[in-house]
């Protein structure tokens, strides 16, 4: 066993860049909603404001977009979702619903101001008809199924299409986050649905990606990390009919997925967990520690009968 | 009567300045928030940021166990601080250090006898609960005329490992039980057990996609027991009891809380409402 007097290997001072990379790593790996708690602890172990500030400037935007954080707009028009799909510039994110662009402070995680989106940033009237119809249906679905869900529909391809004859692509985002520090609990649900409107085949190709996370850390540390990909399709119809069909598909898959997660959880105690450790031995009694003679006998018998168990 | 006290490792802060206290608290806070599967990276990052706290950190934090093959006995054994001397590790089967080490530390011959018996019996216990896996027990004398024993288990429950039901794509369970045994007084002895469980499991199937749970918890248990049936019996029973409690706690409380959270984010739908087109 290592004695107290063992010498620690010679410590080389970490370089500025090395410290910064470590700081970024901690920030980027913070669970949903917990980056500020991680930041506080990180500052205490770093003891270097300059390194922290630079790391934060680089890490927060990546974290915010990956977690699709929602920021309240000062115009009281609701929240804007910060994501790679809504990004106009590094600190500017478009809210298609209100046709505004939010200017954002990533490190403070606030929307500092909004400005109206200009024509180049907005989709054409033709595209907007489809986008708006879908946005309304998704909002309806989200308000029914998510107590605190926020959604957005962004056009990521073909936004200047004037009429039928071209392809275009939307991304539907649904995000819900819960932070309960007094209960040592946090969680997040992220849905990203790519809707590819294909003109030639008159088909909508739908690809979904769901990611669910939860963290419980009262006298311990446990995390859930669940994800699933989806594929579906429907026919290219009018804006309203497409909106209804897409929302139904999303609703169907997400509901089924939630049910499947429930099943996975219910199988844990008696099935999944058993592959790690049983609740009790096959004998259904506690281990007979006091009976050492029985052990040697049991081992002999097991060997003889070739019982691998 | 069982007393279970929940201590986060029992940090001893006597004689430590306020700043150092804050640094350690912050380090432990970070470790509680980083993904459990990245705990090695997180610890290594902290050791390089605050090397002055190395020994505190290493004693507070457990990492997934490593294994080495004892070629002489043909069996695997688990590596930890308690069987390490310099860069060599002592095998509980042959009682030799690998790689070989001169002037190394060994338990007394009496304690070694108990250690051998403990390894044999714990292997059977391990087999009955884990249906596979690897175990090791190490003992050493401590300064208080008692001794300390460390019982370790490592199990790979994945379908490519020792998972009997083939449920798991990935399944790792590491159990570390460190038990301090006080000197015998009037046929009684005081036992203080600290148990840490680290686990990670992942399934991957058609309906639920990739589903992964991982985490760790640590608890303590103290008892005063008669030595009539011997130390091994007492230690074994305490370990079995606390291990069972931790398993259930992880399953019901900890994983249960994450399940609750999912249902809070998106409650299960009673009725799937389908909207039909107006035409």
Automatic annotation (TrEMBL), chain A:
Gene3D superfamilies, per the entry: F-actin capping protein, alpha subunit (3.30.1140.60), F-actin capping protein, beta subunit (3.90.1150.210)
Q: What are the alphabetically sorted keywords of the record?
A: Actin capping, Actin-binding
The encoding gene:
LOC104764212
Q: Whom does it interact with, and what assembly results?
A: Heterodimer of an alpha and a beta subunit.
Entry function: F-actin-capping proteins bind in a Ca(2+)-independent manner to the fast growing ends of actin filaments (barbed end) thereby blocking the exchange of subunits at these ends. Unlike other capping proteins (such as gelsolin and severin), these proteins do not sever actin filaments.
Q: Which Pfam families match?
A: F-actin_cap_A
**UniProt-recorded name of the protein:** F-actin-capping protein subunit alpha
Q: What is the lineage of its organism?
A: Eukaryota, Viridiplantae, Streptophyta, Embryophyta, Tracheophyta
Into which family does the record put it? Belongs to the F-actin-capping protein alpha subunit family.
From TrEMBL, chain B:
Q: Which UniProt keywords apply?
A: Actin capping, Actin-binding, Cytoplasm, Cytoskeleton
What gene is behind this protein?
A: LOC104712747
Assembly and partners?
Heterodimer of an alpha and a beta subunit.
Function of the molecule: F-actin-capping proteins bind in a Ca(2+)-independent manner to the fast growing ends of actin filaments (barbed end) thereby blocking the exchange of subunits at these ends. Unlike other capping proteins (such as gelsolin and severin), these proteins do not sever actin filaments.
The protein here is known as F-actin-capping protein subunit beta
PROSITE patterns according to UniProt: F_ACTIN_CAPPING_BETA
Family the entry assigns: Belongs to the F-actin-capping protein beta subunit family.
List the residue ranges forming a coiled coil, or say none. Answer: none
């Amino acid at each position: 066993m290592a004695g107290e007097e063992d010498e620690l290997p010679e410590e080389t001072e970490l370089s500025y860049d090395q410290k910064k990379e470590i700081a970024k790593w901690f920030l980027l790996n913070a669970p949903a909603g917990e980056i500020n708690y991680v930041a506080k602890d990180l500052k205490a172990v770093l003891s270097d404001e300059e390194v922290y500030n630079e790391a934060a400037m680089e890490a927060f935007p990546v974290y915010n977009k990956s977690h699709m954080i929602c920021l309240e707009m000062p115009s009281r028009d609701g929240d804007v979702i910060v994501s790679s799909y809504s990004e106009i510039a590094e600190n500017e994110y478009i809210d298609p619903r209100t046709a505004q662009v939010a200017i954002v402070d990533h490190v403070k995680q606030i929307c500092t101001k909004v400005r109206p989106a200009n024509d180049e940033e907005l989709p054409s009237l033709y595209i907007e008809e489809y986008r708006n119809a879908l946005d309304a249906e998704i909002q309806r679905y989200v308000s029914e199924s998510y107590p605190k869900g926020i959604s957005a529909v962004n056009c990521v391809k073909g936004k200047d299409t004037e009429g039928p004859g071209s392809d275009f692509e939307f991304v539907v985002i649904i995000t819900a986050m819960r932070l309960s520090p007094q209960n040592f609990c946090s969680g997040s649900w992220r849905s990203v649905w790519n809707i590819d409107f294909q003109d030639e085949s008159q088909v909508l190709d739908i690809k979904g990606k769901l990611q669910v996370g939860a963290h419980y850390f009262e006298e311990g540390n446990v995390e859930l990390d669940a994800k699933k990909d989806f594929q579906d399709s429907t026919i290219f119809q009018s804006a309203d009919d497409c909106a209804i069909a897409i929302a139904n598909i999303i609703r169907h898959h997400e509901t089924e997925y939630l049910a499947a997660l429930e099943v996975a959880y219910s199988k844990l105690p008696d099935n999944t967990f058993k592959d790690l450790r049983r609740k009790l031995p096959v004998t259904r009694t506690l281990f007979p520690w006091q009976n050492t003679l029985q052990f040697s006998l049991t081992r002999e018998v097991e060997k003889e009968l070739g019982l691998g168990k | 009567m069982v007393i279970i006290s929940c201590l986060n490792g029992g940090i001893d802060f006597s004689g430590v300045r306020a700043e150092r206290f804050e640094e350690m608290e912050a380090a432990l806070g970070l470790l509680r928030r980083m993904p459990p599967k990245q705990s090695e990276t997180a610890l290594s990052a902290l050791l390089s940021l605050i090397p002055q706290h190395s020994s505190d950190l290493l004693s507070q934090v457990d990492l997934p166990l490593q294994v080495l093959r004892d070629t002489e006995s043909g069996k695997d054994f688990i590596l930890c601080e308690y069987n390490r001397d310099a860069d060599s590790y002592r095998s509980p089967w042959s009682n030799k250090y690998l790689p070989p080490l001169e002037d190394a530390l060994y338990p007394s011959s009496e304690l070694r006898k108990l250690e051998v018996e403990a390894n044999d019996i714990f292997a059977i216990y391990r087999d009955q609960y884990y249906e596979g896996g690897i175990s090791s027990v190490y003992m050493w004398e401590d300064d208080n005329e008692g001794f300390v024993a460390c019982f370790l288990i490592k199990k790979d429950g994945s379908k490519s490992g020792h998972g009997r039901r083939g449920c798991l794509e990935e399944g790792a369970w590491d159990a570390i039980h460190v038990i301090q045994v006080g000197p015998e007084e009037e046929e009684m002895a005081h036992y203080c057990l600290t148990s840490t469980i680290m686990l990670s499991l992942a399934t991957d199937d058609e309906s639920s996609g990739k589903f992964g749970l991982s985490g760790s918890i640590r608890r303590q248990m103290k008892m005063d027991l008669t030595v009539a049936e011997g130390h091994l019996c007492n230690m074994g029973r305490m370990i079995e009891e606390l291990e069972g409690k931790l398993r259930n706690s992880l399953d019901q409380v900890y994983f249960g809380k994450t399940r609750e959270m999912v249902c809070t984010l998106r409650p299960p739908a009673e009725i799937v409402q389908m909207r039909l087109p107006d035409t």
